[in-house]
Amino acid sequence: MTVPLRRVLLLHARDAFAGQARIDREWQALHYAAPPDFARAVAEYDAFAEILRAFGVEICWMPPEEGATLDALYVRDAAVVAHDGAVLGRMGKPQRRGEPAALGAFLESLGVPVLGAVAAPGLLEGGDVVWLDDRTVAVGEGYRTNAEGIRQLAALLGERVDEVLPVPLPHWHGPAGVLHLMSLLSPLADDLALACSRLLPVPFRQRLLARGVTLIEVPEDEFATLGGNVLALAPRKALLAAGNPQTQRLLERHGVDVWTYPAEEISRKGEGGPTCLTLPLLRA
């Protein structure tokens, strides 16, 4: 999850939001903090995508899906990408249940094979999946991903991995809130990660330390502004939502180069940071 990002799937805010009328219809039912401003969201997303382009990342643009909600913007959640294909999730948020099938069809058009899909009663969202290395996957178990979803993911990945490690997640704000494992842990290099230790299970945190991972702690007052959700563009090169200066200083103090993007409309109001906005297809 930290080697250089080469190819990524995105869904532009212009297509996910479609216009202010759709935003005004949907934002409350989807538990957004406030209604995004459509024009500002489009401008923010343009700036976000330009950072990726400047870094040399190839962008594959997902077409809008009929019947999808505003949340389709957060493409990470609908699938888990392995080195030779993708596993389609089954969304814990009921309004998003149609996203994995649409994403699977588009992935196959890009030449990314679909290895299988999680079926009911399993739940699996990609934001809960953290690859600790090429053979070890940690998966948050909470309201968006359940034990059966983790079992099915392990079966579909098969011999591609040595271990699928369930990580129990806290109740936090309850079923309507957004709390994925990647809300609490953002890998930055093989030996470095940004973490919210106060919400991590002790055995899992100890496991990370035993692997030689240094944990940079997210400042408490920047957790709500997505300071803990950081996308690694390469080892020790990270993309962070603007407005988290303490987190940025901490990262830089640990030798991490940081890029920031304007995040109020496309990230903070929907509680989806840069990892949520991106589905990495190739790192090399």
Describe it for me?
This protein has 284 residues and is α/β, with parallel strands linked by helices. Helices cover 27% and strands 25% of the residues. The protein is built from 9 helices and 15 strands. The strands form 5 sheets. A 3-stranded mixed sheet has the order 2-1-15. The longest helix has 17 residues, at 38-54. The chain is globular and about 50 Å long. The mean pLDDT is 97.
Radius of gyration: 17 Å
Q: Give the ordered list of helices and strands.
A: EHHHEEEHEEEHEEEHEEEHEHHE
Q: Overall mean pLDDT score?
A: 97
Helix content: 25-40%
Number of strands: 15
Biggest sheet: strand arrangement: 2-1-15
Biggest pleated sheet = 3 strands, mixed
Give unreliable regions as ranges.
none
In terms of DSSP E residues, the strand content is: 25-35%
Structural classification: alpha/beta
